[in-house]
Amino acid sequence: MNSLDCSVDVIDLPLTNPIRNAFDHTECDREVVQFSGCIMPHGALLLVNPEQLTILGASDNCGVLFETDALKLLNQGLDSLFDASVVTTITYGLAGIRLGASPRLVGHFVCRHNRQLFTLLAHRTGQGYLLEFEKLPSGYDQQSVIQQFAEVQYAFHSLQDAHNWLGVVQAAVIELKRLTGFESVTAARFLNDGSFQVIAEARESGLASYLDKHFPKSDIPEPGRKQMRQMPVQHIPDNDYQPVSLRMTEGGLSACQVDLSLATLRSISPMCRRFYQNMGVRARLVLSWVYNEELKGFFNCMATVPLQVSYLQRMAYQAYTDMAVRVMIEKQLRQEHELALELKRHILAIGNDLTATHCLDDELVSLPIKLCALMQASGAILLMHNQTATAGVIPKDALLTVLLPWLSQQPNCFMTDRLAEDFAPAKPWVEVACGLMAIRLTDCHEYLLLFRKEWPHEVLWAGEPQKPLEMDVNAQAWRLTPRGSFDEWKQTVTGLARPWQTHEFEAINDLRMMLTIALNTQQLQQLNARNQESNRELESFAYTVSHDLQEPLRGILNFSEFLHKSLEGQLSEKQQTWLKTVMNLSTRMSHMVKTLLEYSRATEQPLSIRSVNLSSVLQDVVENLSSRCVEGSIDIDVSQLFPVVDCDSTRVAAIFENLIANGIKYNDKPLKQIKVGFLDTVPTVFFVRDNGIGIKQEHYASIFEIFRRLHGRADYGGGTGAGLTIARKHVERHGGQLWLKSILGQGSTFFFTLGKSSTDKCSMTANNLPGLAT
Ligand code: ADP
After folding, report:
1. How many CA atoms lie less than 13 Å away from 248 in the CB half-sphere?
2. E strand or H helix at 155, and its extent?
3. Which atom, in ligand 1's list, is nearest to the CA of 721?
């Protein structure tokens, strides 16, 4: 048979949806095919006791093999049938066979009386060892088998060369037809609903084609599928065979109790035989596609005449099939992966635009158009509280009004390829809104909806898949019968959209997250802008108020003093105390107003930035402070040579002055030591360290609040509690940060920068400053 004579067809696969309720019968699923009680006639079978190896059962045709009646074999030992050397070989072969493992090749044997060559396969069931003597095909010779192995090996190349997974299937059917010599080889894959479809075919011209045809799930009932997983190679040399019964020992198991699940010779179910008879098939070799223990499909090699394939050849074809399945799945995964990657790239670009944009609303408006093209959607709607953007063909508002409340009960990302089936009110819109992918953006009915229109298409069945019923007289029940005709039967499928793919779902889920981030960022930015605006208003109000209050306050203070002087000696003690209290309070208020004004200036007035030599700034600050500080011994160390930086010198001087003054003020040591220095980092970190009283960590934040003091009003020389607030304002206006580390009772270090930094401020501690451990 020349493979060039055959026609090879591969269909271009459409995306498939599981067709719900399609010709799905389960009656055959209960058929107990593995206990058929008989075998095919191209071999003989013995069931032997696992310990003594005595014969518990024998197929009726054992007479041919052993020149004796099957019944006479029962209860005999293997030594009564074989020479001692053969018994040793068999015993050796049986050792180590695991329960439930597939049949193992024990050896080849020549029948003594007729020189017929047999392959002995053995496996272990719970009932004993099953020895299967399989006749070797006529004309079998070891040499050609070895040659075939080499050819199979060579045929692997064409699998690798295929461009895509379907190409692998195509190459495999051609090679298998050539290698096996069957007239037709089809490749079928199982679909999600259990039905299967022929996706590639190589056949002799003149034979019926099954390409693209679908077969209902009931054509391979569950026991058959289980069998295909367990026994990836199944062979029927001649479908028109006469089953051979098993003879069993008296009082032991009956023939129908012998577990033949893994027996290569097991007689197949009558339904299956009739099915292939109706198809005109005499010989078959089925090679299952098992991947990760899942049955994905199978190669079906068929001939119109009897054709036997030896065990060794079958093993070679199985190895070839396993390899083909691996390559096929690897290519399929790669194809899917590439598609997914491509889509992810586009979605990421959209996501980046969304998060980077200054005008999110504009980006959102164009989102439905972009997604329609990317996701092969026929329409898209973005529903946000302040806007609705649409693209393509979309359903009317009437549907949305009822759809949105229903969607709120569904997961955040929801998809269907049959909306009307899942949500009945969508029926009138089946043409435009058949498939739906919906992502919820927020909890208040904000959605991105992608629609796919209806995709009416035809499914070709190999014959009317609804099988006729017939009366099973034994079971007294109606049973399905195999189809008599396999002529093309068209089913028009409606109410379905092209199914969404997993990678599309994942990509849109990613987009959902990016959209949520973009929306949150937008909200934060808006909030920030509002905060800044109200802060600015508040600060300018504070400035005006503190400025305008000064005048009347000064008046109150002056007139109180006049009153005090002019009434001297005329006031009672009590009246004098009252008047003094008025003066004290006015003085305090005046201080506070001044401080407030100072703070407002720190925020309101523009900075005067220029190159400043910080060493000379610090020299002035230290001189100024030293002249003010008279009490106790003070050591201010400013020995480092400070850099020249661009800053507002008055404000930076104020920062240093405040920090150094505090270091002196909040210090109970006889020698008050202050170290002023900087770290050579980017940006430069300046620090002022003292050996004073220290600050508890819980007060690190509150000491920067305006008018906040940790001590009594007059303690530690008093103060308004605004020094640090103003210092921090100065620092922030330079784009820097101010923070501290302190150990109670030992001292504090205040750090600040004068420019933007990616430095994590918390990583800068007094302890990791060289030579400064507090
Ligand atoms: P003031 O010194 O006028 O009270 P500040 O804003 O400068 O206001 O400081 C706020 C509070 O932080 C102070 O009252 C004091 O309790 C605490 N504080 C500031 N600097 C130090 C320091 N170097 N050591 C200990 N405590 C300090």
Report:
1. 16
2. helix 142-161
3. 8
Where residue 766 falls among pLDDT bands split at 50, 70, 90?
very low
Place of tokens 């404000």: 651
Q: Could you give the 3-state DSSP secondary structure of residue 281?
A: coil
If you measure from the C-alpha of residue 383 to the centroid of ligand 1, how many angstroms do you get, rounded to a whole number?
A: 53
- Residue-wise pLDDT for 36-72, tens only, equals 899 999 999 999 999 889 999 999 998 777 788 889 9
The CA distance from 346 to 163, in Å, is 25
Helix axes 311-356, 165-180, angle to 10 degrees: 170
Q: Work out the burial of residue 424: count CB atoms within 10 Å of its CB; fewer than 13 is exposed, 13-18 middle, 19 or more buried.
A: exposed
How many CA atoms does the CB half-sphere of 695 hold within 13 Å? 23
CA distances from 194 to 203, 216, 480, 499, 633 (A): 25, 7, 17, 17, 93
Ligand 1 mutation target, pool 666, 675, 707, most atoms within 8 A of CB? 666
φ, ψ of residue 708 in degrees (nearest 5): -100, 120
The residue whose CB lies within 8 Å of the most ligand 1 atoms, and thus the one to mutate among 657, 662, 728, is: 662
Q: How far is 36 from 269, CA to CA, in rounded Å? A: 7
Element (H or E) spanning 338, and its range?
A: helix 311-356
Q: How far apart are CA 439 and CA 382, in angstroms?
A: 10
pTM greater than 0.85 (yes/no): no
What's the rounded Cα separation, in Å, for the pair 150 and 154? 6
Q: Which ligand 1 atom is the nearest neighbour of the CA of 708?
A: 10
C-alpha pair distances (Å), 752 with each of 667, 675, 738: 21, 14, 4
Task: Give 427's contacts (C-beta < 8 A, 6+ positions apart).
Answer: 420
